[in-house]
Every structure is written in structure tokens, then in C-alpha cells.
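[agent] plan:
  1. take the single chain provided in the ticket
  2. run structure prediction with default settings
  3. attach C-alpha cells to the ticket
  4. add a short note for the reviewer (M.T.)
[agent] executing step 1
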Amino acid sequence: MHVAKDDVEIRMQIPGATIRQRFDMGDIGGSELSAEYFSLAAGVDTTPLFIGLEENLCQVPHWGFVLQGQLTTTDGGGAEETVAANELFYWPAGHNVRVEKDAEIVMFSPQHAHKQVIEHMIAKTGG
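[agent] step 2 finished; step 3 output follows
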């Protein structure tokens, strides 16, 4: 299976962020995966978007690759990790994301759980 970026549904588009999500990109251990393509401007911070989620953090793990830019995650204990262009990453459940430099990333996530997080963000931004 393959799909072009422009054929991946835009789930959320606000100033500084476009989130594309393709469902049913396979499964791992009985959990369906979604593939996601995020375009994010420097300065984007998910902290206010995750308020109301458990611990006010994204509780979904993600595996991905940074095509360009730089992002920093912060976990519930305050530990930070920065990823940059041409790096693979794994973000465990329990994180926020801050964009340091305009970024484009590709991620794979448990689809049901991440769909709920994206719907929460959509609601936070007024749809």
C-alpha cells in the first residue's frame, strides 16, 4: 500500500499547522496504525491543545521521521528531547511538542487513540 502526501486527508488546518492522517495503514499486535504527515511552523506548542487530556499530555506513542526542521518534546516529568531533520524518533505516551524550526514530520501511531487526540485538538481550536 502507498499513498501520496496530497492524497492524505487533512484532519486539521490552523495557522502554523496542517495535520494529515491516513487510517488503516496496517496493524501491529492487533492495533490498527494511522500514518500522519504534519507541517508545523516554528513556535507551535501543543501544550494548550492537550489541556483536558489525561495529565494534559498526549497519551499516544508515535514513531516517525523528521523531514525538515526541529522539534522538542517534554514529558510529564519535565524531561526534554529534541529531534531534527533526518532523524528517526520514538515519542512514548505522555508528551507535549514544541516546534523550534519549521518542521515536516511523518509519524505512525495507534489510529484509534490518536484519532481521539486529534479530535480533541480540533475541538480546542473551534473546529
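[agent] step 4 note for reviewer: The domain at 18-124 is CATH 2.60.120.10 (Jelly Rolls).
[agent] ticket updated
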